[in-house]
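Researcher: Please generate the 3D structure of the following complex. Treat every line as part of one assembly.
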Amino acid sequence: MGLLWGAAGVVLFQAVKRGLELQIDSDLRNLVGPARFIARAHSLGIPQQQFRGSDLAGFNDPDGRVYFAAWRSAEDTPVRSKSLGDRTLPRPKRFASQGVFRDYELANGEWVRTLSVRSQNPPPGRPVGPRGGGGPPGRDEFSRMETREPGRGGPPPEDGRPRAWPLRPGREGGAEGGPGHESVDLVLAKSRRRIDETLQLVLGGIGFTGIVAALASMLLVRLALESGLRPLRNLGDQTAGIDTGALDHRFATDILPVELRPIGVRLNDLLARLQQGFERERRFGADLAHELRTPVAELRSMAEVAMKWPEQTTPENYQDLLAISERMQGTIENLLRLARLENRASVRRDETVRLSEFLSECWKPFSERAAGRGLRVRFSVSPEISLATDPNLLRTIASNLLSNAAEYAEADSEVTVESAGSGPVLSVCNAAPHLSDDDIPHLFERLWRLDRSRTSGSHCGLGLALAKACAEALDMRLTAELKDGRLKISLTRLAQ
Amino acid sequence: MRVLLVEDSERLRRSLTTALKSSGYAVDGAGDGEEGLWLARAHDYDVLVLDIMLPGLDGLSLLASLRKEGNETPVLFLTARDAVEDRVAGLRQGADDYLVKPFALEELLARVETLTRRRYQKRTSMVRVGDLELNSSAKTVSRAGNGIQLAAREFALLEYLMLRSGQVVSRTEIEEHIYDDLVSPMSNVVDSAICALRKQIAVGSDSRPLIHTRRGQGYVLEDRAT
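Model: Done. Output below.
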């Protein structure tokens, strides 16, 4: 904005300056005639007392601020106006058809605008009087002569006063005119004081106006910004007031300006996602606390009973203590591993895994439990299938799927473990009559269990969440589907 | 005093049973809600200690069923759910107390004892009949200033009789409240225990008999000199 105001001021100043200089240039052109008249009269020895005051055009006035100096081609000493006093004007070396304008500083420090012209005087032998008689010509004769001098043949001015000659130039570079003609180099000058004063005033006005305009602009811009940004500030204030306990807050987008509506909508979307995330974490925290409360209560009650009634302590109590500790340790390790996997903090080390042997090995720890529940296990895995994958991550996935099947499959039913060359890398299918379609989306949630009360046993509800995170680390995914009372969990590559 | 403990964590149930029995309670345990409901209907317990999240039938539903049937047995909820709304829901369902896991064993025993007293309209742990005094918190008994050492079950029997002093207490009631399911209903364990208790509280030759037999009805503990 300041630059705009500055540029406008410069343009305005230059326009005014140019206008004033054109005016002074015009004045200088109008002074060419009287100056030449005086110079000619001077060369002819005509005393100036015979001129009318208006013919002198102020050249005799010491305060007239108009000056001239004229050089005949053969002379170095110029004819000067009385107003010039003892000051001098530079003899021009260069001429142009319309004259040459320039600024010049006089010896007294006064700046003047000069016009340099070269013109031709009639041959010296030509009679200058009205009838060719001797003696100095009268004023009327000069007047006629000078008005004819341009040779245009036009009628003399009605008022009979000398007019500015058309600037008939001599040849460029100061060459002599035609034969018999004498060239006169004429320099006219007019003080720049008035236009410089005017320009100073204009400059001051522009500066003052510019400062006022700049201040006004700043004020207006500030007011406009404050007014325009008020909705944004309100939005910011509302946003600042939202903490983790108020994530259900939503911005009223219908009262926002059109420009801010998309921001309001995006903020609402962000809040919704944050609310879901915080709710999930809160639920996870509560679930984890609940998960640990029961084993801690078991440990504490056992310790207090042992201290209060030591005679009641049996070796079985120590086995219980060990089992509880192992279970809590498993929970903590699973949580840490889950956190590392979700943060992509673990390094993947791929090896070639022969799937058939690998799955048989994974099944061994659960075979006894499965046999105890009357489960029949059918492996349908081609022996030649091998994978380039991280065996530790794959083992976690397979172990959790097989462990869940051994623990939760309907007793005396069949568990199917399949892998083919195409399709899922691995799928485990078992009868799950207690599951419903509503349970499927929760299967991979941390600490989710179908029976929330199940606090004993080795399962703490982290297995499938851990398996899912492992699958993602292997660029695979776990999906679950329930069909005809049978749960099928499949591990597939993302590309599939 | 007989307590039903319904807790799905077998280890916790086992250690709490040990603690309650060692404190003189007869304890029946159940690992799921359905079994707990069956036991609560089948016996007259002095206190029910219920977990909320139980397999089969949750603790809240179990309590709702009992209250609906008119069972006013004091109930202590023992659960890992500590949210205010969980406590409020439990208390509004008719529970008398609420204890969040993990807990101090002494606190559990104190709360069970309080609920037991409340059942017999006693506000303090001190019960007096004549010159016989029983402190249910300190588990002490004295008569005419003489301390009496009693085994846990004898203490429980005397406490039960003193809490119901002046009332006829049948053998069946004694079996219900003092003994657990392991006691054979055909045994004369109650008569033997009463006989032993009479001897224990007769601290001197001048001690008046306090436990009286109502033939065909049961026993009454009262100070007939008053």
